[in-house]
């Protein structure tokens, strides 16, 4: 272990903050201690000093301590604003699986989850939930067969997001590259 005097305390705080920010998940005092090569007792005292600083109203972050682990996160009172911006960002930047699922729904609607999964070859529960949350798709009915599976269709918000007035403006499947068509 390094001597606590070899690294400036403010520099240690800066390093800890960077590690906690990048790590995202709770990290143990032991892991921080090994990484920084500092004694756990000394490191814990620094972390508790940092917790006090984050308690101030001027900080949007908080440092939590649970089960001998530390985590940097946003303050709960800022949740509404954080959720709003992350939702907007996620709506702007759909993942590849979300785009693939959305394409299938757009071209095959109304379509069941099983049909989507057959085409994609993977479970689509979370992707469909995300698309429902973003209001890009909706449950447009139920299929009249055993289990009454939901039927999914696109929404007006889907049209807005992709800048089209109607589904007729979607590219014709015959005009798309064969690799693209196989995904749909």
Textual characterization of the structure:
The structure is a single chain. By secondary structure, the chain is an alpha+beta fold. Helix content is 51%, strand content 14%. It has 9 helices and 5 strands; from the N terminus they run αβααββααααββαα. It has helices at 9-23, 29-36, 40-54, 79-92, 96-108, 113-120, 125-133, 156-161, 178-183; strands at residues 27-28, 61-66, 69-74, 137-142, 150-154. Strands 1-3-2 form a 3-stranded antiparallel β-sheet. It has a two-stranded antiparallel sheet with strand order 4-5. A hairpin with a 2-residue loop joins strand 2 (61-66) and strand 3. Helix 5 (96-108) crosses helix 7 (125-133). The longest helix has 15 residues, at 9-23. The termini are far apart. This is Segregation and condensation protein B. Keywords: Cell cycle, Cell division, Chromosome partition, Cytoplasm.
Compressed to H and E, one letter per element, the order equals HEHHEEHHHHEEHH
Mean pLDDT: 85
Biggest sheet overview:
3 strands, antiparallel
Low-pLDDT runs of 5+ residues are 180-184
Global structural class: alpha+beta
Quote the beta fraction.
5-15%
- Provide the helix percentage: 40-55%
Shape: elongated
Distance, first to last CA? 57 Å
- The number of helices is 9
Question: How do the strands of the widest beta sheet line up side by side?
Answer: 1-3-2
Q: What's the number of extended β-strand segments? A: 5
CA gyration radius, whole angstroms:
24 Å
């Amino acid at each position: 272990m390094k001597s606590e005097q070899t690294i400036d305390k403010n520099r240690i705080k800066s390093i800890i903050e960077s590690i906690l920010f990048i790590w995202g998940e709770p990290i143990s005092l032991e892991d921080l201690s090994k990484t920084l090569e500092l004694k756990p007792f000394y490191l814990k005292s620094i972390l508790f000093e940092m917790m006090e600083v984050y308690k101030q109203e001027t900080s949007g972050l908080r440092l939590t301590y649970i089960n001998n682990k530390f985590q940097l996160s946003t303050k709960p009172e800022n949740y509404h604003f954080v959720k709003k911006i992350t939702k907007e960002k996620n709506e702007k930047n759909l993942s590849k699986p979300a785009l693939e699922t959305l394409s299938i729904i757009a071209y095959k609607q109304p379509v069941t989850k099983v049909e989507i999964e057959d085409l994609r070859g993977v479970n689509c529960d979370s992707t469909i939930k995300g698309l429902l949350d973003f209001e890009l798709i909706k449950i447009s009915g139920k299929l009249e067969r055993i289990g009454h599976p939901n039927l999914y269709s696109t929404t007006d918000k889907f049209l807005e997001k992709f800048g089209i007035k109607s589904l007729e403006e979607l590219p014709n499947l015959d005009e798309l590259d064969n690799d693209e068509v196989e995904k749909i």
